[in-house]
Every structure is written in C-alpha cells, then in structure tokens.
C-alpha cells in the first residue's frame, strides 16, 4: 500500500469529488469531503516522512516506466509542498461547512457541488506538486484553475462574477503560455519527463527555441503566481470570493505556482541556465522589490480589509520571489520557508475575517469598528496572524524574514535588506489600522450586537493561529525541511 | 534542585500566573491572589539562583533550536542576575500597589491588565536571562507587544495615539535597526552568543564598527536614546502602576540592559576602546542626559516630568557603557538598580497622589504634603536617591560613573554628570518642597487632616523608599557580583 | 525558402496574435472569450503540426508503413482541447451570470456599475 502513496495523494480527492456531487445534500457530504481532506493530509505526512528518511520516491504511473509513462516523483521540496497544501485544505474544509451552510448564496441542493469543486481544486493543486511530468503539470494546473474560478464566482457580491471572469481570462492566458513553453521544450528534446528534460536540455540550451520556451514559461507561471505587475486578477478575486475559498486559495494556489516556478527553473532548466545564462534574477529582483513596496503601500489605503490582505498577499509573493532571486541556499530557504509561513498567516487572517463577516456581514474597516470587544477570540486570532505577517519574533513570519535578511546580507545586498525591513513596517501600518479600529472605535450605529463566532469557525481559525506561534519557535519543519528542499533544488548537499 | 532546572521556572512562573489570572476572570480576589503568589514565587526562584551566580557559575539551558547553531538559550550571568533580581523584587511590591490603585480608581478590564502585566514580567525575565542575541531580541519584542495593551489600557483617543507612538517607535527601531544589526552580527561573527570580551573583535573593522554600533544603539529603542525617546513620555497615559514598574523599571531597564549586554558581551569594551567607536555615543548619551533634564524642568504634569527624568537617567547608563571602561560599565549597571528603586518610588507616589487627591500637576500640589506625609516623605527619599546624595543608593552609581569618566579621561563628561545632578535637584525637589512648605490653596482650612491613599498603595512606596536606603549599604556585594563582567 | 517551409509556425503565430489582440481590445465579454478560444486553438495547431512528419501515416503497426507521425503531441492536445472546451463553457456560464447580475456584458458598463457600488 505505502508504495502507492504518491498516486493516492491525487486519486483519493479525485474520486471523492464526483462522489460528493452524487450524494444527497446534507451533513454526509461535508463529512465525506472532510475525511478525504484528512486522508490527503495523512498521505502527505507519510510521504514527507518517507522522503526525509529514504530520499526521492519515484512512482511509475500505471506501471509504465519513465520516460515513457508519467512519473510521479517526490523529493524534499514537493513532499513539503504537499504537506502545506493538504494541511491548509483540511483546516479550511473544517471551516467551510458553517460558511457554506449559512453564508454562501447556494441553495441546499447545490451545496454538494461546492465540496466537489473544492476537492477538484485540491486534486489539481496536489497533482501539480506531485507529478514529475511537465505536461501533467499543465493538466493539473487547469483542473485547479477551472475549479477555483467556480469557487470564486459563488461569492455573495455580484462583483465576484466579474472577478472570476477576469481571473479566468488571465489564468487561461497564463496556462496557455505554459502550454506553449512545454510544447517548445518537447520539440527540442522529445520528452516531457522532468528528469529527462533536465538531462537533455543542456545539449540544446543555446537555441532560440529553448530561450523562447523559457520566456513563455516565465510569463505564464508569473501570471499564475501573481507576480507584480501581473497580479491584477488577484485583489478582486480574493476580495469577493467566499471567505473559506479566499482562505484556501490565498494559502495554496499562488504557493503552488511558485513551486512550479522553482521546479521549472531549478530542476528542469537548472540554476546555471536560468540565472547564469538567462539572468532571470536580474528581472525577478526588481519586480519583487517593486511588488513588495507598491502592494504594501496600496494595502495601506484599502478600506475593505479582505482586499487589503489580498494586496498584502501580492507583497508577500514578492518576498518569496526575492528569496528566489538571491539564488543561494539561504535565499531559497527563505522563499520555501515563506511558502509555508505565509500559508499559515494568510490562512489565519482570512479565516478570522470569515468569522467577522459571518457575524456582522461585512469586512470593511468602518463596519469592523469595535469588533475586538464583541469577538475577542476572532480578533485575537487576527492579531496573531497579523503579527506573523509583520514578522514579529515567536511567530512563523519571523523565520522567513530572518532567512531573507540573512540571504540578502550574505550576498552583500544592503539596500535589499533595508527595504525588506522597511516594508515590514508598512505591514505594521496596515495591520494596525485594523487592530485600532477593532479595539478602539465604538461600534457603528445600527449594527446588530452579535456575539463571538461559532466554535465550528473558531476552532479551525485558532488551529492555524496556534500553528503560527508553534512554527515560530520550532523551526525544524518550516526552516529545516525548507533548507533541505532548497539544497535539493540547487543540487547541493545530500 | 540545581540551577539548570530552576532557570526555566523563572520564565514559566509568570506565564503560569498569567494563565491562572485568566481563569479567575470573575473572581477579583483569586485573580489578584494569583498575581501576588506568582510574584512571590518568582522572587524565590530568582534569588535562589543568586548564590550560584555570585560564585561564578553560569547556568545555561537551551530551550529550542531556532536554526542550526542558533538555539533559544537561557543563561545567567551577573548583569542579567542583577536585572532579574530588581524585576523580581519590585514585582510583588508593584502587584500590591496595583491592587490598591486599580481598585481605588475603579479601572476597567482589570483581568486583561494583570494578564499582560504577568506576560510583560515573563518577557523581562527572558531578556535578563537571554543567553544570546536572538533570545534577547525575541523577548524584547514580546515585551513591547505585551505592554501595548497596558499603555492603551484606557481605550481613549489619547491612549490610541500614545499606543501608536509607542508601537511605532519601539517596533520600528527594533525591526528596522536592531534586527538588521543582529543578522549582520550573525553573518560576520557566525555566532550570537554573549561571550566575555565580545564576539566581534577582529571580525569587523573601520567605520563599519561605528555603523553597527549605531544600529544597535538606536535599534534598542527602549533605551530611549534621543531622538528615539518620544515613546516614553507618550506611554505615561497608562495607569500609574504600569508607568511605575514598566516605564521606570522593566521596559526602559530592558533597553539599557540590552545596551550594556551588547557593549560588554558583543563588542567587548576593549574592542570599543581600541577602535574608539563608542566616542560619538558618549556625546549622544550626554546630550540626552542634559536635554531631557531641561525638558523635565518645563513639565508641569508630574508623570511627564518623571518620564523625562527617566529619559535623562537612562542616558547615564548608556553613558557608562559608552565610556568603555570597567568602572563605567559597573556604574551603568548599578544605575539600573539604583534608579529602578528611586524611580518606582516616585511613580508610586505620583499614583498615590492621584488616587487620594486626583492631582496630576506639580503646581496643584501646594500644601498636599501635610495631608500625605508618608507619600511625600517617600518622594523626598526617592528624589534624593536619584539626585545621588548619601546615604542613599543612587550616590554609588553616580560615584562609579564619575570614576569611570575619570578613568577614560573625559573631563567634559564629568562636568555633564555634575551639571545633571544639579538639574535633578531643580526638577525633583520642588515637588516635596511645595507639598510640605507651600501654603495650601486659598480657602483651604489651616489644619489639614491626614488623608493618604489606600494602604495597599502606601505600604509599597514606603518599602521602595526604604529600599533606596538599604541599597546604599549593599553596594559592596553588588560591586562584587558585577565586577567579573568586564573580565575577559 | 526556409521561412515559407515553416508555414505551420507562421499560422500558429498569426492566429495566436489575433486571438490575443481580441482578448485585449474587445470590451464585450463574449468576444473576449472568442478571442481566447482562437488563442488556445493556435496552440493546438502548434502541437498537432509538430508531430506531423511529411509523408508519415498514422502510427499503427501494420508492417506496411515505415514513416509515421509522432502520436504523443496529438494525444497531449486532445487533453488540451478538452480543457479548452471546459474553459469556454465555464467562461460562457460566467457571462450568463454576469448578464443576470448586471444586465449587460459590456466591460465598461459593468465597470461603471461596480464603481457606483464602491462609492
């Protein structure tokens, strides 16, 4: 059984999704989805454990050996990513039931479809991570993208529809660019297997076709991961999607895209080609810095808190790209570690906002006035997530910030380190605007005085909030494994 | 039990007491009992470490591994021991005082107050016993965050503004400068341990030493070195027990303590003396001492005056450290202790005056001393200690600082120290003088009845005043404890 | 005549740019989807044509043919075509919903309505 773990990781949610759709509406659907997510998490944990103990796991799909068949290949980097995505998927699924039953504008008969779509999205994300086949990445990418368009579009606000449409257009352009890039690679090498590609590419690296493939892939993936200035789809999509969906997508979708970026540039093209020949770092670094800075500033001026956090996500993606553009073990550790930490903090923040909107029906700053007094637990989680976002010690956010500054200083890039620190202070500003409003301002007229969010929402929120604190102190997973993943990607170390 | 097992207890006792305080939200007596019990337990634990440390032991415990070669480490050395003793001694007194003050003024959210207070104390202990820079930084930030709800306790617009300034300066400087300095140190030295004699000698040279020192000194915003001192007067909006323990003892002392730690154990005073990198710091500190004293003269609000006095007195510690002589460092360390007792007395008195008479301005105090003889008597003692007159504790720290300045042959700085003492007289003594000798406001009866604050307020302030006296006779043992820190 | 010999790639590029231009320039949501479709279709042609070998037949082992086309890109693109159909269907469904919600499918009119909402 255990040798089939890599494929089970994808197949379990894939089979559960239609089952969910077929079941009669009711509690059982959620239970099935929840069990599926929990199983995924278990499989991911087992995989990580095995990879750390035994090294790379290769699985030949259907018994066809690579490079003819599709290979699922799990090393430290993607085992770590699987764990992030599966963990967030499970926690948010626990959160989603109450939101779906009471807050989403879906009739009860349609609710099973939500879970089915959610599981499909999870399937796509997990598949992109686990596969060792370039074309397979595209297929799973589209599975996750299509389902995420659907998930976004069921937000209560009608602007969710336009946001989903906009995302669909930009996402499809991005995915098609990736498809073109993969096609060019196939033309030059005649293979789609990642390891095989990596072996054959150096011989043909100095051709225009390979360089064009590189360019198409860069743009396509950057669109999916919302790299500044290709981030325009993100703020609206996150702002108008249902809170559970935002929490899930914000914590996973862009992360997986970054993982794909790492996979293509480090494993397939190789760091030497990507950063030595093509000088990708020279493009990524300024874009990352511009993204961090501009998105943080824009976030300060938002009145819709969800939108504010969405812009903050763009800035945080900038941090990850910055870490990648340092092209060192430390920098890459920072980026990979931040994938994990950012998933924790944004998951916490968006779920806390979900609790707020569950009770008071809005997440704009003026409506959130005084919320801290009536919903102490919710806002407590928000504050923890916010502190983690700022990068205060003893939170997960500090770990990634530490490695990022360390990486910048190792390269001797003083201004970069200073800018990272300065933008952390911008995060203080936008987080504290919310905190001050929630705790110091009197509640607005006419808002119903409701109590704390139900336990079904608070428990998942606090699970992630406490994880923020835990991983701020015990860094063996989010920094230790991240470092191994970084070493694996750079091809140094064990 | 040996010291290694006791050490983590010092950190966990305040946290545990915070937990029990939270459990007893609806029961004020139990809640405050938990505070008092926790504080007394902490006192016992901290003092049980003292004999071992005095005889040269350096108990060390690693809690977690943050990064390879970079653990979260608790380690006790004389400087931290001294600071922890001060905090542990003053917490029970302050708890007693808080109970009188908070009940006397019927403050809101008392449970939150006591919880944050206990967490702040835990952070202070963490700073005192930090075994490396990372641990220090972590608890430093925890202290900032746990005191933020205390500063903004009243929840008013004014409190919000003050909280903004407080957080803005403390978090801004610590993330902007201190973190950068720490990572830089890690990159060049490969370690963040506090080692006698410093870890930076030979690893960095030229003008970069100055830059790094500046990052540290201004990064430790809690030391209130000008121009990053504004948060301290702003924080006075907090209830008086907070101002007393946190903004006269725990928070600001954590700042100057960190300064001393960095100078003694990271740079090393020999290294600083050889490179001369700290000479600019002396002048910044001296300027802070003088300017803050002048500002204090202009303040009529009692707490604001005391706040600026604190800024000035903190400058002494930084000055002592910047002299980079062993006498200067010892004088600075003693100043932490002596000033703590003196200033907490003054704040206790200010709070007692507010509780009993609802007076906040110096000019309103005329004749009040006759109604509150104990309070004003204690104020006089505290003020004299801060000025540095024998037989009070403050005289010793001033003495060693003067000796340190003389060792460094900084005659101008000696003049600054003396001038500042005169200024202390000018802004502190008018308070008891008005209280005892000025005529009560017109219309008042000639015979003023005794009307003190609640007993829970008056007893602690008398005790801390006596403490100032007691410290005068403890200088020898304090010197003996502190002397090894500058020895390589 | 190398340039003309690569005519399949020229068709791919021209189609791709046409589609892309329509996506960018049109304000009508349906027309945008049409553009997107052309854009995707161009990539299908790229894949299909690169597997084709002049004179090659279908890769069936009959023992008769010695030259046959590479089937892998063709298979791959079947998947991509399915994805494309799904995308178009979903996009059109969204447009229907947008029309229900806003009463228009012109981008600038929707934008104007959203602006009003934000105020």
Automatic annotation (TrEMBL), chain A:
Record-annotated membrane-spanning stretches: 6-23, 30-48, 79-100, 112-131, 137-155, 167-189, 209-227, 239-262, 282-305, 317-337, 343-362, 374-392, 412-432
Keywords carried by this UniProt record? Cell membrane, Membrane, Transmembrane, Transmembrane helix
Q: Pfam families recorded for this chain?
A: Proton_antipo_M (PF00361)
Membrane topology is: Multi-pass membrane protein
Where in or outside the cell? Cell membrane; Membrane
**Which segments constitute the NADH:quinone oxidoreductase/Mrp antiporter transmembrane domain?**
133-426
KW Membrane (keyword) present? yes
Keyword hit for Metal-binding = no
Where is this protein chiefly located? Answer: membrane
Its family remark reads:
Belongs to the CPA3 antiporters (TC 2.A.63) subunit D family.
- What is the designated name of this protein? Monovalent cation/H+ antiporter subunit D family protein
TrEMBL record, chain B:
Classify the protein's membrane topology as the record does: Multi-pass membrane protein
- Pfam families to which the protein is assigned, alphabetical: Proton_antipo_M
What InterPro entries would the database entry show? Answer: CPA3_Na-H_Antiporter_D, ND/Mrp_TM
What keyword terms does UniProt attach to this protein?
Answer: Cell membrane, Membrane, Transmembrane, Transmembrane helix
Give all residue intervals belonging to the NADH:quinone oxidoreductase/Mrp antiporter transmembrane domain.
130-422
The answer to whether the entry has keyword Flavoprotein is: no
Instruction: Give the principal location in a single coarse category.
Output: membrane
Span-the-membrane segments of this chain are 6-23, 35-54, 74-93, 113-131, 137-153, 165-187, 207-225, 245-268, 280-298, 310-330, 336-356, 368-391, 411-432, 453-473
Note whether Aminoacyl-tRNA synthetase occurs among the keywords: no
Instruction: List where in the cell it is found.
Output: Cell membrane; Membrane
Give the family this protein belongs to, as stated in its UniProt record.
Belongs to the CPA3 antiporters (TC 2.A.63) subunit D family.
Question: Mind telling me what this protein is named?
Answer: Monovalent cation/H+ antiporter subunit D family protein
Question: What is the organism field in this record?
Answer: Candidatus Competibacter phosphatis
From TrEMBL, chain C:
What InterPro entries does the database record attribute to this sequence?
CPA3_antiporter_subunitC (IPR050601), NUOK/Mnh_C1-like (IPR039428)
Q: In the UniProt record, does the keyword Membrane occur? A: yes
Record's subcellular location: Cell membrane
Alphabetical keyword list = Cell membrane, Membrane, Transmembrane, Transmembrane helix
Q: How does it sit in the membrane?
A: Multi-pass membrane protein
Q: Which domain of life is it from?
A: Bacteria
Transmembrane segment boundaries: 6-24, 44-68, 74-96
Enumerate the PANTHER family for this protein.
ANTIPORTER SUBUNIT MNHC2-RELATED
* The family this protein is said to belong to: Belongs to the CPA3 antiporters (TC 2.A.63) subunit C family.
Q: What is this protein called?
A: Na+/H+ antiporter subunit C
The species this protein was found in: Candidatus Competibacter phosphatis
